[in-house]
Specification:
170 residues, 5 helices
Length: 170
């Protein structure tokens, strides 16, 4: 799985977001063509089906993982087998789950922010908003982040400490 170790810093200021519910991106919104390009890529991931989100605003398109592929921990999912959703065109951001280390990296490098309910202890520190891509280069970065969320939901993420323990036992 891509650990996003080479994730570049996002250029410019962070967009304004609504810190209350619904948690939305208010400025620097992704052009609709880039939103659709991201959507089309995500819907073709193996075992993914698209349906309305059961937790987001009306019009949010969610990515659900088939149960037989959903081998990640509970924190890898937003609701049920939903691991990510793309907000409607007026917003263009995504909510998704990432391993804590990757979620922190995404936030530190300016690609997103933790959901406000994370600070309140309602949601785990795996749940982040990723800002919508403003251009083709950002689309590639956001696509990598979304693929990391998919891998987390599939159970293809292993904490580095666990990997080291496994290596020592070989």
């Amino acid at each position: 799985m891509d650990r996003l170790e080479d994730l570049p810093a996002r250029k410019g200021e962070r967009p304004l977001t609504r810190r209350s519910m619904p948690h939305q991106q208010l400025t620097q919104n992704a052009p609709r063509a880039l939103q659709e390009a991201l959507f089309e890529r995500a819907r073709t991931l193996p075992g993914v089906r698209v349906a309305p989100s059961r937790i987001s605003v009306p019009g949010a398109r969610a990515f659900y993982l088939d149960p037989e592929r959903a081998r990640g921990p509970a924190e890898a999912f937003v609701f049920g087998h939903e691991f990510a959703h793309l907000h409607p065109p007026y917003d263009g951001s995504l909510h998704l789950s990432l391993p804590p280390e990757l979620a922190e990296r995404v936030v530190e490098r300016g690609w997103g922010e933790f959901h406000p309910l994370v600070a309140q202890g309602v949601l785990p520190p795996t749940y982040v908003m990723v800002y919508g891509p403003r251009d083709e280069a950002e689309l590639e970065v956001v696509w990598r982040i979304l693929q990391a969320s998919y891998a987390f939901a599939c159970g293809e993420w292993m904490e580095p400490v666990q990997a080291q323990k496994g290596d020592r036992n070989k």
